[in-house]
């Protein structure tokens, strides 16, 4: 059965970056998460009760 959520002939989920290898997708995800964590640490937000 064809999986409509992955690129043809791969196990890689279709993604906005059009990355078709697991290694490249993992690297991109790690980079994006790292950038967002750094942004949160340098620009924290306040939660008010």
Which structural traits does this protein have?
mainly alpha; 1 helix
By helix and strand content, what is the structural category? mainly alpha
String of helices and strands: H
Query: What's the quaternary structure here?
Result: single chain
| C-alpha end-to-end distance | 50 Å
Rg: 16 Å
Q: Percent of residues in helical segments? A: 40-55%
Instruction: Report the average pLDDT across residues.
Output: 95
Whole-number total of structural domains: 1
Give an overview in words.
With 49 residues, this protein is an all-alpha fold. It has one domain. It is 43% helix and 0% strand. The protein contains one helix and no strands. It has one helix at residues 22-42. The longest helix has 21 residues, at 22-42. It is elongated, with a radius of gyration of 16 Å. The N and C termini lie far apart (50 Å). The relative contact order is 0.11.
Write the layout of secondary structure elements.
Blueprint (H helix, E strand, L loop, with lengths): L21 H21 L7
Give a quick summary of the entry.
The protein has one helix at 22-42. It has 49 residues and is mainly α.
């Amino acid at each position: 059965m064809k999986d409509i959520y992955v690129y043809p002939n791969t196990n890689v989920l279709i993604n906005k970056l059009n990355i078709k290898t697991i290694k490249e997708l993992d690297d991109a995800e790690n980079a994006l998460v790292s950038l967002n964590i750094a942004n949160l640490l340098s620009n924290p937000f306040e939660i008010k009760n």
